[in-house]
Specification:
This protein has 297 residues and is mostly beta strands. It is built from three helices and 18 strands.
Length: 297
């Protein structure tokens, strides 16, 4: 999202230097040469790991969370400074995309492990497609032209120990400007039980990790799912993108929707480059968020 392609960056494997941005298929990415300094809010007491919270996804059918595997994988620069994570649930050393990309024009030569196909499920929003996160028994809808990751893949932002991510990963606008993706969405979690605080906290954390920016939140507001089972808080966190490449977005928004769970809150996240054509606006984000629902095969 808004980054300059083909700058030298360091992959998730320490000391490995690569050049470029996105590869041809989803998830083959690289990150900045300079390590990202600690971003976002302080960890809660007990040295809470944000990626551990991301593993604890909500099961709408049961009203609670469950632990799922969320292996760390390759990191990618988005939005000028953002860092995206895409993983397949394996350990970091064996993650599907832990190395790879030489440039945005060179396909990866690594052999991929077999991954699950995208699950077909009916959408509840007309003209949309369903994103299924079977590990959390949840589904939500996105516009039909979005790219939906296989259900065993995970996505998010950051470089350990400052990361945020989850499953139910979808994206839109790959290469809308050189080597950049306009929008990503995923399901994550927060240890915070207050949904307003959770929505604001995750939005601020995602903005600082993904865009290295000082974000400005808008006033949170109540939001309810279409099926009437989820009642929570919607928030938008805005900011400026530093030195965007030509044709790339000058601004961003992190949209969040937090709902109660047995342990903390479920938080849906949409990270969007804005100020460019086809950018996700608040109404579209709400339409996506309100489609969250239980999923059973």
């Amino acid at each position: 999202m808004g980054r300059v392609a083909c700058r030298e960056r360091t992959s998730v494997e320490e000391g490995t230097t690569v050049h470029g941005g996105f590869d041809r298929d989803m998830g083959d990415t690289a990150t900045r040469t300079t390590p990202i300094p600690p971003q976002g809010l302080s960890a809660p007491p007990g040295h809470h790991d944000d990626m551990a919270v991301a593993r604890e996804l909500y099961r709408p059918s049961s009203g609670g969370h469950r632990w799922i595997g969320l292996g760390m994988a390759v990191l990618a620069v988005l939005g000028g400074t953002a860092v995206a994570v895409l993983a397949d649930g394996s350990d970091a050393a064996e993650a599907d995309d832990a190395t790879g990309m030489v440039s945005a024009l060179t396909p990866s030569t690594r052999t991929r492990t077999t991954e699950q196909p995208v699950i077909s499920a009916p959408a509840v929003v007309p003209g949309y497609r369903a994103v299924v996160a079977p590990d959390s028994d949840a589904a939500y809808d996105v516009p039909a032209d979005w790219t939906i990751a296989p259900p065993d893949r995970s996505g998010g932002f950051g470089k350990p120990p400052n990361t945020i991510g989850g499953k139910g990963y979808a994206s839109e606008g790959k290469d809308y400007c050189p080597g950049s993706t306009r929008t990503v969405a995923f399901l994550t979690g927060s240890p915070t039980t207050d949904t307003t605080a959770a929505a604001l906290e995750v939005g601020a954390r995602a903005a600082r990790i993904a865009y290295l920016a000082d974000p400005t939140p808008t006033a949170p507001e109540p939001l309810h799912s279409l099926d009437g089972t989820q009642h929570g808080t919607f928030a938008e966190t805005r900011g400026l993108i530093r030195d965007p490449a030509p044709g790339c977005a000058p601004t961003f928004s992190i949209y969040t929707f937090a709902t109660p769970a047995d342990t903390g809150s479920l938080v849906m996240v949409i990270a969007a480059d804005t100020g460019v054509p086809k950018a996700v606006d608040p109404d579209t984000a709400k339409r996506i968020f309100t489609s969250i629902r239980p999923y059973k095969p």
